[in-house]
Structure formats: structure tokens, C-alpha cells
Amino acid sequence: MPTIQAILAFAFASLILVVIPGPSVLFAVARTLSVGRAGGLITVAGNTFGQFPLILAVAFGVGAIVAQSVVLFTVIKLAGAAYLVYLGVQAIRHRRSGAEPEHGVVRSAVPRRTLFWQGFVVGVSNPKSIVFFVAALPQFVDFHAGAVPMQMIVLGVVFVVIALVSDSVWVLIAGTARAWFAGSPKRLSTMRGVGGGMLIGLGCVLAFSGSKA
Predict the structure, then answer these.
(1) Cα separations (Å) of 108 from 33, 101, 114?
(2) pTM of the complete model
(3) β-bridge mates for residue 102, sequence order
(4) Mean pLDDT for the chain?
């Protein structure tokens, strides 16, 4: 187990990274605008859960191989970017689905299980997370204490918890703005289209960023 000092130091470093709006925040906000607050929270849960395979990969050395391989890194990056674009296109295509309120509630056309696994796919295919974990986790590990993989896993869980809370706050904020648009089917479909456009834009930015950016 890492020391309390190491956990607190890593938590502080993670908090600084997480609170600054980045791809995960933009993804969560875009999904919230498209599918609503509840769907956004489910998406965030899937996205953060998708970090666990990356943490395990880094803890057992696979992450370093991916981070150092331009080919593997690029393939994962482009796959994740393409999936974001796909989600954006789907959001725009179905922006009018369920736009009419039923008993005052606007329902998402996307099942909750699908939202969760969509978030998971985006999370697990995010090469930036691999690079962060490869670069950051070893800095807070006591190699002389042994059980290095377990120390990395514990620190990774700390990061996931912080990211889950932070991204959920962004979803709640975006959901509040979306509530106003939900009062009009036309405004709601427009907002869903904006969310889809954000996903497409985010996918393009990630695809055309540097080979290891």
C-alpha cells in the first residue's frame, strides 16, 4: 500500500489535472446536452469505470509498452476519436427522438446500459489516460516497499474517484442549462445537435492532435 503522504500528494496532483476542463469534461457535457442529466451521469460512470483497465495495464507494465509504441498509441487514439465522431453523428441524427415531453419528462432515446458502455469504450480507448498513468503513478510509488502493482492500483482508484466526482459536477451544471431547453421540443433538438457537434469536434481534435498528444 502507498503511504498516506503519497496518496495525499497524488490526490492533489490529480485534482489539479481533473478540475481543468479537458476531453473527459467536454465528453460528459456533450453527452448531457444530448441525452440529459441522468444519461450524462451514467456516461460519466462508464467513462470513469473504463479507466480501470488502463490502470491495471499500467500497473502490470502493458501501459508502458503502449505509450512507447507509436503504432499502438495511434491506433488506440484514432479508434477512440472515430467512436466519438460516431456518437456525435448519432446524436445529431436522433436529436428529435423523444423531444416531446411525456408527463413533463423528456426521455432519452438511448438505453441506460448503452450509455454506460458507450462511456466505457471512450474511457478505455483514451490514450491520454495511459500516458498520464505511465508518467504519474511511478512518481508516487515506494519501490522499496514492494507490491508496486498494488500501490499503483490504489493510486489509480484515487484518481478515478476524483474524476468521477468532478465530471459529475460538470454534468449537473450542464443538466441545469439543458432543463431550460427541455421546455421546447425545438430548443431541445437544437441542444442535442449542439451536443452531437461537440462530440464530433472533440473526436476531430483528438484525431489530429500530435502522435502522442
Answers:
(1) 11, 11, 11
(2) 0.73
(3) 105
(4) 77
